[in-house]
Amino acid sequence: MKILGIETSCDDTATALVEAKRGRFTVIRERRSSQIDLHKQYGGIVPEVAARAHAELVMPLVEEALDGEQPDVIAVTAGPGLITALMVGVQTAATLSYAWNVPLVAVNHIEGHVYGNWLASKKNIAFPALALIVSGGHTELILMRDHGNYKLIGKTRDDAAGECFDKVGKLLGFEYPGGPKISEAAKGGNPAAIAFPRPMIHSDDYDFSFAGLKTAALYWLREHKRYSIADVSASFEQAIVDVLVAKTIRAANEYKPKSVMLGGGVAANTKLRAALAASVSTDYPEGALTLPPLFATVDNAPMIAVAGYFHAKRKDFTSWKKITADPNWRIA
Ligand code: KG4
Ligand code: ZN
């Protein structure tokens, strides 16, 4: 089965043709156009600007991903995300479904991030599985009992982890998005140099809160005129990683999943990947860890195509007449 994936929920226009064969996925072609340069001048993503860029780019990128091939299924991100941005992908997919008479699948963006793990060359995923999804818009712990069966067990009460990276990055003078730049700067720093707070690390639930950490960084930077950007970056990154890993392990110990997964843009963070791997193997060895390949961490279309494959297998299609973009679509 060949699946065309389309993703336009935020600031990446992404398309891919993925082939599913005996439980293995091959990305035949994928295209991703990041709008970062377009939004940089505004210091963040402007929905209207994003939607216009998606509208210009989506069909040329669909054509490039297909390169003359016809998909068996079309999978598109229908939410959550920016409504005007989502609508471009959804309307494009609906139109193609009508014109080609090819079945259509609506994919939840967070679900897509979870399915990024099925693109790993070395994967060990048995259900129930626990997924930590960390991106610019989301920080969620999801228990997946089976394909399409999700339970949201924890989420951020304020800022997402990636958003916190980006905001502190801005304070340090990094361009948007600050996450990868902080991570790069942190390599030369001491993670124990500054004792930033670890919000909610000991709370008796699986929720997160990162607004206080951002404020703590803001005050610290105001109080200290001279500092090492590397030390601030490393200490801040360590605080976020500590909280994310501690909460995931706590959830694993309660829900006893057979496997643990990571996803979302922040899943590209080297320290988080290493810390989660170390902690799962020592503190929750009964769970097998799968990490998504780097190309499947930031918003991308292969992950949407893979999620679409599992919907198609269960014949969970949505008619082009009925599909709608839902900016607040919750996975569970
Ligand atoms: O999943 P994604 O592309 O978009 C959303 O759905 O939000 O995630 C983008 C987020 C940004 O906040 C970016 O700063 C963060 O992922 N990010 C990172 C790294 N690479 C991307 N954060 C920390 N370390 C990284 N290496
Ligand atoms: Zn995302």
Can you describe this structure?
The protein is an alpha/beta fold and 332 residues long. The chain contains 10 helices and 10 strands. It has helices spanning 36-40, 47-66, 83-100, 109-115, 161-171, 178-186, 211-223, 229-255, 270-283, 302-313, and strands spanning 2-7, 12-21, 24-34, 73-79, 104-108, 129-134, 139-146, 149-155, 259-263, 288-290. The strands form 2 sheets. The chain has a 5-stranded mixed β-sheet with strand order 3-2-1-4-5, sandwiched between helices. Strands 8-7-6-9-10 form a 5-stranded mixed β-sheet, sandwiched between helices. The two termini are 27 Å apart. The structure holds 5'-O-[(R)-(carboxyoxy)(hydroxy)phosphoryl]adenosine and zinc ion (ZN). 5'-O-[(R)-(carboxyoxy)(hydroxy)phosphoryl]adenosine binds at residues 10, 135-137, 162, 165-166, 177-180, 183, 264-266, 268-269, 298-299.
